UniProtKB/TrEMBL annotation:
Gene3D superfamilies: PPM-type phosphatase domain
Segment forming the signal sequence: none
Species the sequence originates in: Nonomuraea coxensis DSM 45129
Name under which the protein is recorded: Stage II sporulation protein E (SpoIIE)
Keywords: Hydrolase, Membrane, Transmembrane, Transmembrane helix
TM stretches of this protein: 12-33, 39-57, 64-83, 89-110
Amino acid sequence: MANGGERRRVGPSLPTPVFLGALIAVTVALIALDSFTSTAVRLLPLLVFLPSIAAGLGNVRQTAFASVWVVLVMAGTLGYLRADFEDSLLAAGFTGLFGVAAVISCRYRVHREEEVYRLRSAAAALQRQIVRPLPLRSGDVVVDGLYQPVEEDAMVGGDMYEVAASPHGTRLLIADVQGKGLPAIGTALAVLGAFREAAHREPTLVGVVEAMESAVTRHNLGAGRSGEPERLVTALVLDIRRGPVVEAVNCGHIPPYIIHNGRAYQSSLGEPAVPLGVAALAPGPRAVAWFAFPAGATMLLCTDGVTEARDSAGTFYPLAARLRAWARHPPRRLAETVGADVRSFTGAPLRDDVAILTVTRTRGSS
């Protein structure tokens, strides 16, 4: 629940000087126009709409003040003009009812915005458990980049990543849950929980992947009992130590790209294994591959939101060609450049989550 300080920050609220200045200015303008123009249409009754405007832009206190202000102005002006008493009373009463309705409307609007704020706060806390803010560091590597969920204003998408500094080396995960947004959160939490535990417990990378496979299988069984669809997870799990070679298990994910000495190329990991969640259908156990990651190189990892992005003609995004052109970029700038170029290439809102990670060795690693 939001505390009192958070409640005061919820929803738009006009600064008091701006609110009072606008209220007085509109009132004076309408009275002046009503007094110095000879039109048959009276403009003074338009003041009745001021509380409604305040209800949409300000807080409850400002709306209530505007309502009382309009009633007093209407009553005072009609009294000054010596209008019929019954007409004046009717106008003041009608204005008061409009003011009460505006206050009720404002309270409802603020309440809804408080609910949205609490939901956003919960989503932000959940995001910190699923995708930690970049950069992430271990004794071996620095991981930077960007993460963009496809849903507008969404905090969490179907992509995930994690870095674990284990006694066996730095274990790195990048994965993509089938589906997008909130429906994929349960599977993502199952995968991340299994990885975070197994990365420290299991001495081999295959053991880490088997723990993640078991977690996805159990989650899918529970989802099936509740009528929810089962989900697959493509994942790439790396073991990075203080040497020029990296160990990898590829579960249907995009192999890493290496950028070094002005060159960019995709590492060869052999035939990818099946995604997490369907190991029972595979002909054999998942295999381990090794690839070179020399000192001074940058490794780029991404999800299929990058490689499967298409332009208006249906052409896939040419990531390898783009990376060769940007091979001299520093890691952080490289990820930002790729992300911006994907959006420019598609010429339309992204249709899938995008995660782009750059991995560099820390000083002293070799």
